[in-house]
Amino acid sequence: MFPQRRMRRSRSKNIQPLLCEITLSKNDLIAPLFVDETITSPLPIESMPGQFRYPVSGIAAVAGELWSQGVRAVLIFGVPKKKDPGGVSAYDPEGVVQKAVRKIKAEVNEMVVITDVCACEYTDHGHCGIIGETRCGTDLLNDPSLELMNKIAISHAINGADVVAPSCMLDGMVGSIRSALDKAGFEDVLIMSYSTKFASALYGPFREAADSGFAFGDRTTYQINCGNSREAILESKMDADEGADILMVKPAGFYLDIVSEVATFGLPVAAYQVSGEYSMIKCAAEKGWIKEKETVLESLIAIKRAGAELIITYFAGDVARWLDEQQ
Ligand SMILES: [Zn+2]
User: Fold this and answer.
1) How far away, in angstroms, is 201 Cα from ligand 1 center?
2) CA torsion sign, 30 to 35 to 41 to 42?
3) pTM of the predicted structure, to 2 decimals
4) Catalytic residue IDs
5) Cα of 167 to ligand 1 centre, how many Å?
6) Residues of the chain with pLDDT under 70
7) Is 237 helix (H, G, I), strand (E, B) or coil?
8) How far does residue 304's CA lie from ligand 1's centre (Å)?
């Protein structure tokens, strides 16, 4: 007998939109922004076509433009004037992120401002905290670096950050920052933890963007090996237990299995479509080998289908515009 169930019945042009399981919304989007203290006009990032570093003076206008397009959240990365071994400029009240957050909040008060909490952009050695001797040579020291993260997070909160996003992959970072924020009177500031962050080749273009390459070694002693899924899940579980409000998987596209597992914990999950994911799409599209808009939307739907409710993407502004065009 001919099949009773004909799947194509549900795929007619009129019926299909009614049965769509996953759709993108502007509320899903977080736009990463690079603020550079050393420049006075936007500087194109060569390895990420279409992306710029912005001067502090111009950052509120960029955030305002995103807000008017319907993007509700930005994630701020700073490029400071000065770097030193201790990453001191990361918690300077007049530091680049601190100034940028104040400016954005003054201009676009409702914009949710998320700040990256790490030291790698502020240390001269390029590692994510304090380094020193360990039994395996010079490496990132865990507990001394926690103190530094606390100071950075509090400083961002004082200047108006709604959400702090620790990205250093130190053990105990969420618990440490949570108690430091609470003690300082910022119990209403959220923590979006980079809870599962893989040591990935896809971060390459970001290092030019944020000027955060390292002087020696790599980050494989604190970021996760791409083959380790149990470890990856446990990392997010531990941050959930330490009080993270939002968990994150980074990168996104190569790690959708991890996103979908982390989404079972009951906390909101963000996924970071990183610089390499951006540049691969952008570059192939520029060559005419794939269609940019279709590929981007498909990549984001896939991330959402895996279980993320938030997507950090350099395409945020474009996507907001495309969603408007679809209506
Ligand atoms: Zn870092």
Assistant:
1) 15
2) negative
3) 0.95
4) 197, 250
5) 6
6) 212, 214
7) helix
8) 26
